[in-house]
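Final report, closing paragraph on structural work. Over the funding period we assembled a curated collection of sequence-structure pairs, and we close with a single example.
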Amino acid sequence: MKKVYVLLANGFEVIEALAPVDIMTRAGIEVVTLSLNDDLEVSSSHNILVKADRLLSSEDYTDGDGIVFPGGYPGYENLLKSEKAMALAKYYLENGKLVGAICGAPSSLGRKGLLDGRDVTLHFGCYDLLVGKKCNIYDKPVVIDKNLITGSGAGYSIDFGLALVNYLAPEKLADVKKAMTIKD
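Its predicted structure, as stored:
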């Protein structure tokens, strides 16, 4: 069974985190949510409290097949401030493991120099955060560049989740889409 970690920082966008969690779970992928806080409760960008499965600080979490960084403000800024979160992103990228980032979260990775030479998308309001960085920005819902999948924003959370499933468990994609009544 594949395993994916989803990082939840205060200010995350609920749909960008939980739609992919739901979709990956439907595909039989083990999904573990990680709180960047000192406790399991994480407050979303709209003040919705979500209880994470574990604390980011409790283990090293390099054993997964993938890691996902939801956006939302100030969630993506809080991800950027987390040395452990950014170190995990670097580890997963460098070791050929899946890294997913949506909305403002790709800007956090880019500002740490982790997207150099990569094709990405992100929320249009965050384009200026990547000025002068060495990545190629595309105005598309989802962009896939090897083991990096980026999504442009909340409205494409389902597309982003499906892209994650297609990367990790392509044999499950058709069944997930059918169960969700998504037609090609």
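Helices lie at 14-26, 75-81, 83-94, 105-111, 157-168, 173-179. The first strand starts at residue 3 and ends at 8. We thank the funder for supporting this effort.
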